[in-house]
Amino acid sequence: MNKHTITLTIQKTGLHTNIQDTGRIGYQEFGVPSGGVMDRTAAATANWLVGNPATTPLIEITLMGPSIRIQGSAQIALTGANLSPQLNKGTIPMYETLTINKEATLSFGKAINGCRTYLAIGGDWQVQEWLGSSSAATTTPSTLTPDSVLQKNSQLKIQPRFFLPKRIYEVNLRPIYSDPAFIKVVPGPEFELFSPYAIASFFSQTYTISNDSNRMGYRLIGKDLKIKLKREVISSGIVPGTIQISNSGQAILLMRDAQTTGGYPRIANVISKDLDTVAQLRPREGIRFELKQKGV
């Protein structure tokens, strides 16, 4: 192994572990979802802690963590969900720069809070891109970015640039995950087509994240909204954070890998900042929506 190269070997994959970055921006008109990291703030913070640009790839880990052998001198950082990370079976802190001098094994234990952890490693990642991104996506064939879907014995190469002085992300800036989560939204394009009863029901109830939820979208369990729209809705553009109401009155919150068009009426859209919070919600946790006030 080249002493100047960091090598990552996946010894155990965990539940859902893959490479993500900031996504494929500018291709939605061709039907390609933007994709990318689910929690953009956590990912950007992890990259900052190791001196990487925010667009640098990193590893997104969901609920049950992998076991990763890291060979070579490296700086790493973990942010987002606390999945009880360990280095050589010793507990390590999150939200700060950690230095590995030669080699170590990173593993995870019990999920304490949150849903997704981000692992950043300082340097230039030697991974393939498609449309300017290395992100693995639910809707994109893995043959286009084969490095991004991590399997047992997968190896990744990273070329380190420099070591920086230890960084620690301020404790008061770190997220606090609550159940239920209170999420701000703005009215969707069809908001005014819903009855006052449906709108009141949407904002007054606590939804539960369904087990049938993934990077494409979260199905929300709650009281069905009585849909009596004033006119037909044609298939229109949607973005991550769009909340659609199905014909049966079920709410669906679209996430990073969602399709680019949809035919269900759009009652609201989660604001960008709070979409990071949504990304950290687990199945069976609660979510409530609040209408964002102008200027707030």
Overall description:
Helix content is 9%, strand content 35%. By secondary structure, the protein is mostly beta strands. It has 2 domains: 168 residues, no CATH class; 111 residues, Cyclophilin-like (Cyclophilin), CATH 2.40.100.10. Strand 14 and strand 15 form a beta hairpin. The chain starts with 5 loop residues before the first strand and ends in a 5-residue tail after the last strand. The mean pLDDT is 90.
Give the averaged pLDDT, no decimals: 90
Instruction: Give the percentage of residues in beta strands.
Output: 25-35%
When the domains are counted, the total is 2
Strand numbers in spatial order across the main sheet = 7-6-9-4-1-12-11
The separation of the N and C termini measures: 53 Å
Oligomer: single chain
Number of DSSP-assigned strands: 21
Class from helix and strand fractions: mainly beta
Radius of gyration over all CA atoms, rounded: 20 Å
DSSP summary: helix tally: 3
Helix coverage percent: under 10%
User: What is the 3D form?
Assistant: elongated
Element-by-element helix/strand order: EEHEEEEEEEEEEEHEEEEEEEHE
Top keywords for this entry?
Cyclophilin, 3 helices, elongated, 296 residues, 7-stranded mixed beta barrel, 7-stranded antiparallel sheet, mainly beta
